[in-house]
Design a protein that fits this description.
heterodimer; A: 337 residues; alpha/beta; 6-stranded mixed β-sheet; 4-stranded antiparallel β-sheet; 13 helices; 13 strands; 26% strand; B: 260 residues; mainly alpha; 11 helices
Amino acid sequence: MLRATANPVDRRGVATGGLPTRTAAERAHRVVEVASLRKAYGTTVAVEDVSFAIDEGEIFGILGPNGAGKTTTVECLSGLRVPDSGTVRVLGLDPQHSRHAVRESVGVQLQEGSMPPKLTVRELLDLFASFYTDPLDAGELLALLGLTAKRDDYYKGLSGGQKQRLSIALALIGDPKVAILDELTTGLDPLARRETWSLIEGVRDRGVTIVLVTHFMDEAERLCDRIALIDSGRVIAIDTPAGLAEREGGGNHMRFHPSRPFDDALLTALPEVDRLEHEGDRIVVSGNGDLLNAVISALATAGTEAKDVQLESATLEDAFIRLTGHPSGNSDEGGER
Amino acid sequence: MSVNAATGPARPSRSALRALIISEGKLAWREPVGLVLGVGVPVILLVIFGISSGFQKRIVSTNPTTYRTLYVPILMGLVLVLIALISLPIPIVVQRERKFLRRLSTTPIAPLWLLAAQVAVNLVLALVAMVLIVAGSAAFFGVHAPSQVPGFILAALLATACLFALGLVIAAVAPSERAAGAIGSALLFPLMFFAGLWQPSQAVTPSAMHTISNLTPLGAAVHAMLRSMQGTFPTIGSLAVMAAWVAVFGIAAVRLFRWE
């Protein structure tokens, strides 16, 4: 499993040393490149060393605990912040030197902030449309985001989900090639989150490359083609969600009650099984590959049956904890930079 | 913070600026604090002028200036102060607090355009207020409209410029809406004191207070506008004082402004 997912990582790669050898075709499809990015605020180093590359049409997740440097990283992408060192290229341009061109083709949704309360949805879209050379049609965008019925409502009267959808609309009104979405679904109810996710997939299907900053595992797992896991200002791993989940001993867990006792060696001898634990009278077997069938047939040879079987796949959450050494759950929503 | 929103080749887009002015104008209309201050206050005070007979008296027997005539430029000064110190900076501070300025700086336009739009909207408000005061006091209370028109316009423009620049200093330094309101109100009283709101006679009787007053932005403004209303060109001194304050406040605003 690891081998299958390791391949795209090697090809797209974190390493920037491989850049000069890229073919012209590869370069054309690479929309974002960040190499050895570093940014400190005074003595606080927010981003220590971050490198990644994003291909056209990807949903690329930047995942990490609060304070990991995710927001600072994307702020350097959108040109809001000047890196201390390292290079940032968006569509081949330096966001600091080609400010106007980068801002024309990069749509941004900021983590915090709000719009003037007494402007209507339609007025806000028209205002933002006026900033761009070739904006999308506001009416179509409203329809796409399900805001048509709310077009004449003041911003202050919108629900959290509607505000979030409007802020996505405002990020897209300039017809960007890249959209940077920071903590897209924070504060939304589960239904609104799911709706927002489908929306983002719809946006990607229109050909927009999406950079998604999040600290939600389920969001990253569901949406992202690849994820850069960032902790303490460094990239820990870049991989597909499934690839990350199976890294470093992650895998499947199978829980069951044996119909009668058996010798642990029966299962630990199997190549699929990495570990066996007793939880009271339950057995927890961890491993990879076709764990379920291997265990059940081994038990059958010993005349034992597995009852109340529960199977858990490796999750990104597990990988996150293994790789960062701390749980993802964070109550400190405001501490992000 | 290292947000360099105002630098770089922000290509001025006319349609973007127009759209910003229109939306700031709508906000000013829908949250009409500025409208109340700029238009409501002069109307109310003009009515008070009109019904109170005390304002018809001469200030000093040797001078034909009545309180009513004198209070017209003071009222103009008061209205300009209210617009410049409250109506202008507060929306800017609020939009910075709300991170709207920051959001703008991720678009091709510079957030500076939002400031320009705010200034434009409040200039319109100031113009409406000044016209109301001139027309209202001339039509209903027999106070002559300014007879030295170029002098009056120059004085009013300089007064507006230095007060708006001061308003932008408040927008630059105030960390919150509440702080902006507090700074604005705190400045209002000394400014209006030296403009003669409570002691109008200092504008016409030479004294130490008169000299100090003429060195303040609003004292100089009232002095210049009063002279032009009475038919003489404002003194170079009063115009120079205002021009100096424009420079001081303007530089301070540019130096101190924070985008987030």
